[in-house]
Amino acid sequence: MTTGSMPRLPGKLHFVPRTRRGCWGPPQCLMIAYLESLDDEWTGHYDLAQRNCVHFSDWVARRLHLAALPDDLVGQAAEVMQTPVARLVLGTLHMVERLRGHATRL
């Protein structure tokens, strides 16, 4: 079994039910311009528990006036990060980042 991010066709994830976020009608070029305008709001800062890809997806859906992602999904990473194993792993990741000279927050 593989882990991590992998491409999947819509509706083909077996463990996540498909939910419709809604429809947005402007042309693709407007969507690309909109996404490029996100630079100010979504910089390179990444926080595994509070500012991850799920938070980004929820933010985009809300900005496009589509249905927000379910709260339990959006809060899942923060909940997992409270477990003892996750805190141990996160502490190790922070130490590695400090040793490498990066001040990023994981």
Automatic annotation (TrEMBL):
Domain (PPPDE): residue spans on this chain: 33-89
The protein's name in its UniProt record: PPPDE domain-containing protein
Pfam families registered for this protein in UniProt: Peptidase_C97 (PF05903)
Family named by the database record: Belongs to the DeSI family.
GO molecular function terms noted in the UniProt entry: peptidase activity
One GO term of the biological process aspect: proteolysis
Alphabetical keyword list: Hydrolase, Protease
InterPro entries in the record: PPPDE_dom, PPPDE_sf
